[in-house]
Amino acid sequence: MMRTWLSARRLLPLIAVFGTVLAGCGREDLSVLRPQGPPAESSLGLMKLAISIMIVVLLIVFSIAAYVLIRFRRKPGQDEIPEQIEGSFKLEVLWTVIPLILVIVLAVPTVRTVFALGENHSGDKNAIKVKVTGHQYWWEFEYPDFGIKTAQDLVIPAGRNIAFELTTNDVLHSFWVPSLSGKIDTNPTGATNRFSFSAPKEGVYRGKCAELCGPSHGFMEFKVKAVSNDEFKQWIEAQKAPAVLPEDPALAQTFKDQCLKCHAVGDQGLAVGPNLTGIGSRESVAGILLNDDTRQDGAPVEENLKTWLHDTQGVKPGNRMPDPSKDMGLTDDEIDRIAEYLASYKLN
Amino acid sequence: MDWITTVDHKKIAILYLWAGGLFFGIGGIEALLIRWQLIKPMNDFVDAQTFNELITMHGTTMIFLGVMPIIFALMNAVIPLQIGARDVAFPFLNALGFWTFLFGGLLLNLSWVMGGAPDAGWTSYTPLSTSAYSGTHGVDFYTIGLQIAGLGTLIGGINFLATVITMRAPGMSYMRMPMFAWTTFITSAIILFAFPAITVGLVLLTFDRILGANFFEPGAGGSPVLWQHIFWIFGHPEVYILILPAFGIISEVIPTFARKRLFGYSSMVFATILIAFLGFMVWAHHMFTTGLGPVANALFAVSTMLIAVPTGIKIFNWLFTLWGGSVRFTTPNLFASGFIPTFTMGGVTGVMLASAPADFQFHDTYFVVAHFHYVIVGGLVMGLFAGLHYWWPKMFGRMLNETLGKWTFWTFIIGFHLTFFVQHFLGLMGMQRRVFTYLPNQHFDTLNLVSTIGAGLMGVGTLIFLTNIIVTSRKPPDAADDPWEDGRTLEWSIPSPPPEYNFKQTPLVRGLDALWKEKMAGNKGMTPAEPVGSIHMPSATPLPFIMSVGIFIAGFGFMFSRDDFGGGFVSFLFNNYIVTGLGLLITFGSMLLRSLVDDHGWHIEPEELEGR
Ligand code: HEM
Ligand SMILES: [Cu+2]
């Protein structure tokens, strides 16, 4: 009885595998199982091949195991000594050769895909070039052909190939947009990595850092926003436009003195911290406070900015931004007004 | 006192078992805290820094201080008996290996109370682990603690190599050696080649952190990828250091309880050697996303997949050992039969990970966490449970309680699959590993809850095992020489627990499964290979303990040599390397003593042997 149950229980996971894979689980903008771009598709293709082979292997092993464990259990009173079999040359060759064949079946497409995905697109004239730089705990995206930089939201034209060049400014990070492509590490300069992907469909995709990089590693998220070609052009132009500063001159001065020491907006300030141009129209604040006016998945951008500015360490432990009130001496009122200003700094 | 000075392999085995059990418990508690933190999104049970310390210490503790010593415990308890020897080749070194391991482990764990545990992951990738980004002494505890503990492992490994090579009983050729002795032998060889690599890495990292060197500092021409190579050239073989002994245990347990000799013995030996060899060739499969390029990725992908072949041979050989047998489901055999499908599941995800372009998606996600726990917990820990239940009567002279044993098995294996099976999906759905929390609405919540519940169940299983040990230890020792009745190898031919000299007369081995062969020939026990004579025994000595204390003190001294103690005597002691010197003096002094004072050991005379 117990044994029958044992074998049944072993089959359950398998059924679960098939069930969930077929149902295609996870969010469309996040799950590896619901690919939205060619590299993610080819990875998933290999996964499907591998998992089919492996499920066959598991089925064989599980059924032999179940059979053996039920069939050959010692019954009460059974006392004879089974024949002491040395082995079987034929059988052993069989289970050497079959796995070898299975490995070859998997190895050939693996090698082919490795080289296909490893192709260098940096010379491709039609590709949009983007330099990705990892920072503890935010992402910087530079478009060298357009002379602009942005942070947290990677805006790309849908359907175009994006040729990435990746480095880090501090520790190792790993750039990962599961639904569009596998991950690649960001190494320090000198070991710059290149890869590329494209997003055929317009939409917003969730990206993550996949290499432990300090306390807020889990919060080092970003968004990939695929827009139409026209929208992309507009965005580039808006991004290049002169900076919009707070209307109140006193506040503008405070903003310049305190915030633009690290951040940049438009043509002003320094970009050692995340570029803030047009932050009002971004998908998130600090990568993780999701902007959502309907409040289903986050809060309105202004509220998020206030949350961030009043408690940067609470939102993202260990991050490197000084505290606006403690370190920069801003009053709560100034902080709120800066948040309002930033929230209204939209690009369209 | 007896325990501090002992050089008897059977007592050292018990020391390894208690110490390993202690660290395993600590690592287990850390695991439960990690799982508790991840039970729901945006949980704030522990903060981000503490979480990173927990995962780092959990991984480091489990691998280096939890399961390795328990493996060593079984090896120490069993190997000399299985090959018909009276002890290991170097009993003094054996004790030294244990004490350096213990003091290294203590040093590492003291970090919890001495201002910050290591926080850069058990892999301690640079630059995160350099002093610029990890400012506490945490990583120093890691580098120095592991150097000291690693010394113990290396000593142990060399000792087993020498033991197996030189101390087999007459007639025991290599191809008549029990499988566990074989896997111990191969494992020790891997230790011999792999541990020096990590030691070099740890020394370099210590230099970077304490003496300001630049081996891994990108700004000064060092390479962070270099660390990854060094780490994994050790780290991948390490996985086989862990799993091969489990293979050995399963290969002992299954034949005993199936009453059948191991199917395909020589292919098992060959597969073990092949796995060990390939284990050294595949380290870069941990680095597919580092950017080594398609050529390296393709080569390492294919060589990794090849490991599936010898592993498959093993699995089918075990299944066909059971085939046609007369199988008894005692607790050890339950664990062994649970091992086969569970480990296979870890094996197949391993092959999936080897496919580099797929690994671009799997790497550093919960899929990987699921995979390696299937191998390490579902494979190794299950193997250790099998081995502990199996050899417990031989080690302690008492049978563990079967009912409690079965409860341990069922709670543990069900909890295990609950915990880790769902993690495959978490990874595929986009959850990275080593995250201290996660945002809601990502479809991660339910599966994480399930996983945490499973972890709790595994905890319960472990507690039942502890209860079993306590209950058992209160009973009088009553185990027979051959308590499972179908013992096949030499250890079952002598009393449980064995006398301190193991074999009154060295046995003569007449084939594979020496004891079984004699039983089938109608003999009561082994035929001796020598007349009863005077037995030479090594003397007990506190020197290994003292030497390890010395290294422990030196480690502390070195670690704090750059600290600002605000002047005064303490600064004087530490900043001038006086503490370091003192520690080394103790160690080298003891070594000198050991060399100068001749100790010829002592003898047990025949009259005494017969008198018992
Ligand atoms: C009760 C049993 C266990 C549970 C519930 C458990 C759970 C976990 C969890 C949740 C993580 C963190 C994953 C992450 O975010 O990276 C982890 C990491 C790890 N575990 Fe376990 N674990 C258990 C037993 C073991 C054992 C027995 C070993 C080894 C012998 C082990 C080795 C590791 C290693 C090496 C890591 C990686 C640590 C790192 O990322 O630095 N675990 N475990
Ligand atoms: Cu990260």
Automatic annotation (TrEMBL), chain A:
<comment type="function">
    <text>Subunits I and II form the functional core of the enzyme complex. Electrons originating in cytochrome c are transferred via heme a and Cu(A) to the binuclear center formed by heme a3 and Cu(B).</text>
</comment>
<dbReference type="InterPro" id="IPR036257">
    <property type="entry name" value="Cyt_c_oxidase_su2_TM_sf"/>
</dbReference>
<dbReference type="InterPro" id="IPR036909">
    <property type="entry name" value="Cyt_c-like_dom_sf"/>
</dbReference>
<keyword id="KW-0813">Transport</keyword>
<keyword id="KW-0408">Iron</keyword>
<keyword id="KW-0472">Membrane</keyword>
<feature type="domain" description="Cytochrome c">
    <location>
        <begin position="246"/>
        <end position="346"/>
    </location>
</feature>
<keyword id="KW-0479">Metal-binding</keyword>
<keyword id="KW-0349">Heme</keyword>
<dbReference type="InterPro" id="IPR002429">
    <property type="entry name" value="CcO_II-like_C"/>
</dbReference>
<protein>
    <recommendedName>
        <fullName>Cytochrome c oxidase subunit 2</fullName>
        <ecNumber>7.1.1.9</ecNumber>
    </recommendedName>
</protein>
<dbReference type="GO" id="GO:0005507">
    <property type="term" value="F:copper ion binding"/>
</dbReference>
<dbReference type="InterPro" id="IPR001505">
    <property type="entry name" value="Copper_CuA"/>
</dbReference>
<keyword id="KW-0812">Transmembrane</keyword>
<dbReference type="InterPro" id="IPR014222">
    <property type="entry name" value="Cyt_c_oxidase_su2"/>
</dbReference>
<feature type="transmembrane region" description="Helical">
    <location>
        <begin position="47"/>
        <end position="70"/>
    </location>
</feature>
<keyword id="KW-1133">Transmembrane helix</keyword>
<dbReference type="InterPro" id="IPR008972">
    <property type="entry name" value="Cupredoxin"/>
</dbReference>
<dbReference type="InterPro" id="IPR045187">
    <property type="entry name" value="CcO_II"/>
</dbReference>
<dbReference type="InterPro" id="IPR009056">
    <property type="entry name" value="Cyt_c-like_dom"/>
</dbReference>
<dbReference type="GO" id="GO:0020037">
    <property type="term" value="F:heme binding"/>
</dbReference>
<dbReference type="InterPro" id="IPR011759">
    <property type="entry name" value="Cyt_c_oxidase_su2_TM_dom"/>
</dbReference>
<feature type="transmembrane region" description="Helical">
    <location>
        <begin position="91"/>
        <end position="111"/>
    </location>
</feature>
<dbReference type="Pfam" id="PF00034">
    <property type="entry name" value="Cytochrom_C"/>
</dbReference>
<feature type="domain" description="Cytochrome oxidase subunit II transmembrane region profile">
    <location>
        <begin position="24"/>
        <end position="121"/>
    </location>
</feature>
<dbReference type="Pfam" id="PF02790">
    <property type="entry name" value="COX2_TM"/>
</dbReference>
<dbReference type="Pfam" id="PF00116">
    <property type="entry name" value="COX2"/>
</dbReference>
<dbReference type="InterPro" id="IPR034236">
    <property type="entry name" value="CuRO_CcO_Caa3_II"/>
</dbReference>
<dbReference type="GO" id="GO:0016491">
    <property type="term" value="F:oxidoreductase activity"/>
</dbReference>
<dbReference type="GO" id="GO:0005886">
    <property type="term" value="C:plasma membrane"/>
</dbReference>
<keyword id="KW-0249">Electron transport</keyword>
<keyword id="KW-1278">Translocase</keyword>
<dbReference type="GO" id="GO:0004129">
    <property type="term" value="F:cytochrome-c oxidase activity"/>
</dbReference>
<keyword id="KW-0679">Respiratory chain</keyword>
<comment type="similarity">
    <text>Belongs to the cytochrome c oxidase subunit 2 family.</text>
</comment>
<keyword id="KW-0186">Copper</keyword>
<dbReference type="GO" id="GO:0042773">
    <property type="term" value="P:ATP synthesis coupled electron transport"/>
</dbReference>
<feature type="domain" description="Cytochrome oxidase subunit II copper A binding">
    <location>
        <begin position="125"/>
        <end position="238"/>
    </location>
</feature>
